[in-house]
């Protein structure tokens, strides 16, 4: 393993360490950054970037130690180097930009004094080598692809870097929007946080925008064929790294800087207009039709060869190190988000069940779902759920990011089901260039539908939208060839009358009571919406009935309010086999999540629907209302306790249950989408 | 232009000569111009101060200060400032030309961070005193020697250029460098060591030595060995482990609890010596003292001094050369034999006579004798 250290403890040096670590890793090297070189303050993006690399130096078996930024070693860095405990035969390299021989000696001395061993020296400022950017810390280099790595087709994916100051200028956003209107251009804007915020608050909020540090440069590569850099000059080390990687991948770099910052170094870039308004025309007239040829010529540039990462690695003698081999057997990994129930995992399991290809299927799943998935025969890698006890709100996701990176390999397929695309999945997909599918059911609340929520869709090559059963509930949040709509994904398994009776008999034995009336309540564990009052009321109503069994369903591992224990007719049951229970019941009282709702509809279960109302949930009330208006269920809102009492009586004492059963049997529901979704994933989008 | 001070011992004679003949006496007595950046700290400043004290009695002395990039922003070292004040020698900063019979350029490494030297040196003999080793243990260059010598060489019009090592080890690095490099100018290596003058007041050794150990130095990383060596030298079993100049340990909090740490300057040297009976001094294995004045100070203070054999060789047995793993045994033997402790300390103090003012004067007079107008 390669251990990376830096000449100073600073945000700038740490950023350089991150860039260099990613660069080495892309060459198949096993890399760690000595955690002590992390500055005191790090932002969220840095934490994600550092997580795969950060290590306690004592925990790793370093085979080579690389110290970057060694041209300006601080005392603090020397103190840390003094504490590096590596075998005497482990080579140490002082990598820096040394302007003079004395600078070299200085770097060598400082490391030699601190570590008690002589370092090797690598000077990145050779007289013959062009200077990409003054004051660089990272040993920037790139792998040089044999052929241009660009997308097929007439159009192109365009990344425009624009500093905040330029975005503030008149017409800059309009210019970007005009460029984005072209059907042949898929535009992404890259800017800093202020710039992103400016765009999001503008009438052009729907533009795809990357924050400056949102993804590391090598991850951004997936998103463009052509990169245009605006501003006064080369905008810092990170963007210099991005431009260099783009050149090394045979993409087109358009230098639109006012000082021709890239072109002046001799880099293989094309000089473009320094005003955004002119970019669209320039792109179509000059670049679009020749972009692959431009990329090919870039790859042959002698300038680029001086930044060849392989050459750099040879110079520091890394070629002997073992390289990480990709797993030869691709896999499909499902990653259902940790919702409040098992809905996402259930949906993924249904799709996985319907898949027929030979690719192994497994899950990255949260603890609440693991039993269910394993019982269905799927292997699971556990993910860590969020906790208020964590220092950072994203701490759990950070761990999940590491696990996903360890689990997945290039060539794998990943299927994510959830509303919010976690950083873990977004970054893993981007980093490993995975073929990724987003299962995204609809019925978002109005406030949830915004560009920020949808922007990470760009990481997915395929978005599968399981439809709602009723047309008025379906909306298009985004469009494109990558979007596929399928029928409702729903668990099916209609019980025969005999099977229903058999189940009721078993329940009778289990609970040691005659069952004339069976009621199933599935209102959730109270996390998304507090439903204790409704549940207690149901217990109370049903307690007065003779030979009545009331089962309150809780998901395995759910926490149930202790007040439910005292009822004679009511019992809490932990199970995922709700579909059978509901079919055996005379009445089901349920929340209106996607899965429960559609199971109830497709299994023709008479139900009272009590929507959950937490703001982060889907619009359950609309869903329930659509069914109620069709007389396929009763709708009771959370405040309507008296209505609940009336409806229970109507179902159990009146004829409402039968009426609903008949209506459900007559209703023409769309075909389910389980198999269609499975086929789409197998086809790979 | 400031007039250089005149040697005290010959002042009356000069006055008499001038009054009698009316001829300016300057040319009759060698002029010695010192060239240095007076802002460097540590033992080198003390050594040069002692040298000025002595030489200003033997020749007409000028002291030229260079404001080099290496010590930018610092003030004149107190030892030197005191000596100059005492001798009423003005400090001439960045003269465009320095002319003297002998120019003694102390510590050429002060030029290592600059590419020009805007001073012209005209002399019969130019002596560059190499306070920094040219090479480190293992052979890596200590500084950009060629550049520093070239700057001095290019700026000088002289009959002879000489490099004066200050110790056997220092000489070894100079010889080794000269033998493998091709300096631009002709440089002879002075055949005798331009040693640090150690004119300390000798303290009597304690009759009851205890396992009280210590070391003192500037806080630079080169001055400290790796942790395993420090642990051997300053074990928990010792009654006292005093580290003066422990700034980096104080910063990172990594030092064992049984060490008593003081930052550089956090304790007077005399207070420090009151706390110890053994000076145990090892440096980073990648660096070595060019002279080792701290060890001479310890001997003079009545302590047993232990260091690595190469550093110890400068002191002809006054410093015990040993491996770190041998330190505990050495200390134990001395504690069990206080008489031997006292005898060896006193013996060591006697050997410091080799570095006395008298010894230096004799050597310097030989040099002056080779100059026109110098004493014969």
TrEMBL record, chain A:
Gene Ontology MF: a single term:
hexosyltransferase activity
Please state every residue range assigned to the domain named Glycosyl transferase family 28 C-terminal.
Answer: 573-653
Q: Check the record and name the PANTHER family matching this protein.
A: SLL1722 PROTEIN (PTHR21015:SF28), UDP-N-ACETYLGLUCOSAMINE--N-ACETYLMURAMYL-(PENTAPEPTIDE) PYROPHOSPHORYL-UNDECAPRENOL N-ACETYLGLUCOSAMINE TRANSFERASE 1 (PTHR21015)
Name used for this protein in its record: Glycosyl transferase family 28 C-terminal domain-containing protein
| Organism (species) | Roseobacter insulae
Q: From which lineage does this chain's organism come?
A: Bacteria, Pseudomonadati, Pseudomonadota, Alphaproteobacteria, Rhodobacterales
